[in-house]
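Section 4.2 – Deliverable D4.2 (structural model, holo form)

The reporting period included a commitment to supply a predicted holo structure for the target in complex with guanosine-5'-diphosphate. Inputs used:
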Amino acid sequence: MNILQEFDTIAAIATPLGTGGVGVIRISGGNAFEIIDKIFSKQNLEAGRIAHGWILDGNKKVDEVLVLPFKTPHSYTGEDVIEIHCHGGVNVVKNILSLVLQNGARTAERGEFTKRAFLNKKMDLSQAEAVADLIHAKTRNFAMQSAKNLSGILRDKILEIKGGIFDTLSKIVAGIDFPEDVAEPEYSYLIESFEKSLSEIDEILSCVRSSNIMRQGIKVAIVGRPNVGKSSLFNALLNANRAIVTDIAGTTRDVIKETLDLDIAVTLIDTAGIRDSEDVGKVEEIGIEFSKQSADEADLVIFLYDASAGLTNEDKEIFELVKNKPHLQAANKCDLIDKRSDGKIYISTRTGEGIQELREMIKNKVCDFSLEDTEYITNERQADCLKKCRESLIRALDAAKIGELQDLISIDLKSALLFLDEITGEVITDDILNNIFDHFCIGK
Ligand code: GDP
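Output (structure tokens):
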């Protein structure tokens, strides 16, 4: 890919469409300065100097704005960029964008600004992917982690591993190409070098589980027999009336899911005891079967029973299904009882007693899904490339251990390097690239 490829000039609204303090329209490409000259009250803008003035449609005033001019290559995309900061109203930003488009820009596609930034080498692919992660982060924690990737922590680590492999490969190639002058590297040296690269890759891969949890969150199911208060608890935890609560068992027919931010995105699953009213005899069976399904799907289970009824046989049967999973046990409707046993969690979704404590307990349990190993946040694509790179290195290591021809070993090293290049985007197909940027929003 060339540095600063030639592209046409694109424009988009960079802020969400709505009412707010400020709206931003972004223009990027060779005609950005020409376009702003045609519609702004001030001319010949100087890069890096904010200009204050009016956007004009002929002699009609459209809005009073600030304009931020950036000259290539010192901009987000690496091209000439103009940012117009106007008042944040849906129609103001739309009016200004229309003017920009009428004067020579075209509407940007999803992620096209960031794609240009990548193609113009303002960032590598792992950083471009971090931009999307940052925007879509469901938790503050994940946003902070994504910012680390945006700063290039993953890229730097990959470059370091690549450097090591490349170094060894160069020694092998030199030995092959100039056998008279350069000795083949020792096999013990190769083994040591491959093991080092493998351990570095394993260091990143060891974060995959926690980065998946960070990215996707964990699933928490509230499980228990009908009418113990699962939907009520679901609502209480979310502080919302998302699930319908009634006295009639089996009102909630669908599984309801909502996300809580407990540093990790927690998807709460309310399975509120589906009942088959046609077949009363099967009620218990269905309740149990249903609890089993949702418990299977969940990473953490909250087992709920009715304190006023005590633990019934049906409760016990359901508990048997979940006891081997990470779980919490809570006795609901404690407002209906006087006596309490030590060491049990009592809650009342009616009075709110114990709900905050339960929230804290869920949060602590969620933290057990260790997030310590999150030095490197990866996505599925990156983890996949790392695993393939690992396989190539293992093949090279095995070959070195049996003293295989170094020419053959070099083939695996080259393929290991290619997989690493895919992470940073040095080797990438259009399909993969489009797939990545299609997940962005317009204006980013
Ligand atoms: P689910 O079938 O397990 O989802 O149970 P629901 O959340 O639909 O609640 C069943 C019934 O129990 C409803 O009438 C709720 O108002 C009632 N209920 C839920 N939580 C409490 C509580 O803490 N105390 C009392 N007294 N009633 C509750």
